[in-house]
């Protein structure tokens, strides 16, 4: 397990001392998130040394990367290294850039929950918008002071299109519908500006929803598959949801991280939409997932107005022709395969949970 004690501190020996000769070096913010974990696996497979910035939390927050963690005391084998930093702390970003000297920076960190951004708008803007600006400025000043080049990836979102009707491409106007989406628009334009003003190799990936068994449990797909597994094994009976008529273009996170990397391997920096070009409603996700386990969602789902948003994004469906043409990227996992992958994993998790509940080790009511 990646212990907080093993996360390097600024007074620790230079983090790049054990740099693997000739390996490219990537710095990933948001490494403990869904995309951070898939991107790190992908980059390690490509031979990169990967440095992740993690924020301090009262509980371990490294569950998604524990399986690829190697204790740094075993320095010859450890190609993923973790450091404390925060997008709200500019000095930490600049310090780690100076120590790590990355070739590529992937800015994935965010308060990424759209509904929560209505509850904590100021914090969301600070991390998502100003956080991106802090990191861009740290990259710019590090490059100027050290005569180095860094390629920068910004995690943009289809939420920026908001109420603009589909299909949405790179030329579709933004009309954000939440503090989160407005903050992502700011981060998008900061990135474009740093590219134009300073010649920085900076790309915006405008990614449509992408899911996986590692998706956070309060996003709708995972909330459904997690509840479904528990319903199937008898740990839960009801699932409370909000607007199930919303439509999303859902892909597999493992496919999308490849597109992030491809954007940084081109001759010139640019912005790209990444999507499956298929859209499904939340209700269709319920149909396919419950149907797969031989259940009817109508027997279990109740609509709870608490999950409705003050302003909703009704319909997202990407046009990814530019990424297909220029990056030669295309998604490998389709909608039904994605749903089944998530249901299979969450059913196994529910079965393990059931063993613990039956043995009296945990209380079924205490689970999400
Ligand atoms: P997650 O919510 O799973 O991960 C977010 C990451 O950001 C976590 O590692 C989190 O740390 C970290 N983080 C949050 N706040 C801070 C902070 N103040 N300083 C440093 N790190 C912080 O998101 P995803 O992996 O799903 O998404 C990755 C990025 O892509 C995000 O920017 C998201 O907005 C964007 N995006 C995601 C899409 C999707 O469908 N998944 C689609 C389009 C864009 P911790 O683990 O401690 O919480
Ligand atoms: P989204 O994802 O807002 O698209 O943002 P989410 O899964 O939260 O919502 C998708 C749609 O489902 C509806 N919905 C519910 N959503 C949640 N979370 N919980 C519910 O109970 C529920 N019931 C219905 C929502 O109203 C919405 O229409 C995700 C995040 O990963 C962002 O960071 C990213 O930028 C975008 O995808 C692209």
UniProtKB/TrEMBL annotation:
Family to which the UniProt record says this protein belongs: Belongs to the NAD(P)-dependent epimerase/dehydratase family. GDP-mannose 4,6-dehydratase subfamily.
Necessary cofactors: NADP(+)
PANTHER family per the UniProt record, alphabetical: GDP-MANNOSE 4,6 DEHYDRATASE 1, GDP-MANNOSE 4,6-DEHYDRATASE
Sequence ranges assigned to domain NAD(P)-binding in this UniProt record: 27-342
Domain of life the protein comes from: Eukaryota
EC number: 4.2.1.47
Protein name as catalogued: GDP-mannose 4,6-dehydratase
Function: Catalyzes the conversion of GDP-D-mannose to GDP-4-dehydro-6-deoxy-D-mannose.
Class of the enzyme per the UniProt entry, highest EC level: lyase
